[in-house]
Amino acid sequence: MRWGAAFLLSTAPALAQEPDLIIEVGGDLYLHGGVVEVFAVPSDDDDGSQQTLTLTDRYARVELRYDPQGTYLYRFKAAQDVPRNPSLDGFATAEMTIGSRRWDGPNGPLDVDYRAVRVPPMAEHSGVSEAARATAAWGTVERYDDPPPANVWGARALTDVFEPRGEKRHVRVICEEAGRVRVCKPDPEDALLMEVLWWRAIAEGRLERMRHDALKACYDSGGLFGRPDFCVPVRGRGWPEYAPE
Prior knowledge:
- The protein is of the alpha/beta class.
- It is built from five helices and eleven strands, in the order βαββββββαααββαββ.
- A hairpin with an 8-residue loop joins strand 10 (231-233) and strand 11.
- The termini are far apart.
- The relative contact order is 0.15.
């Protein structure tokens, strides 16, 4: 099986090969950012026609069918009606994960090409100042009712929401088919659940990174006397801390 994929700026020059799928980004996905997971599914039912798909939800799962003897190509671009910064419009997407994933098809499970693509929030690529763009990339929020950030760590947390482990609750998705594409989006009735689980995943990820940094600092604390043999958690702090045993 051969494959190919492209994630391009909306201002990129025309490609020699036309994309099979154009994904237009608008609404909350453009304003606040999010994640689009793309599954490239080989299928004899592919008619080879080009399609344009508009996404506005902050999470979407896109299944693109393509000729198993050929290649596929898709492109992200900003929708025409989104707000823009006249002096700076650097819209682009970023790959987070590249590989293969198990896809449950009508004839049973199949390993297919997979991409998890982060769509940065508008403030990250078109903010009014370098400081505004930097704080957006950090995932800074200012109001209690701000939506979850879609910086690098926030986007990874969102993918965790849709791949629950253990006894975590699932966010339901609603799927629709059109031509060679199948799109799954969060059920609107689960919007609050999705936001709660997303914030929780962000907090868990942040705590895990703090624990990792604290443990590393402990083992690096030996200096000229060598690394400690074992580090243990220190109780009574408001943040993770370890000390040599």
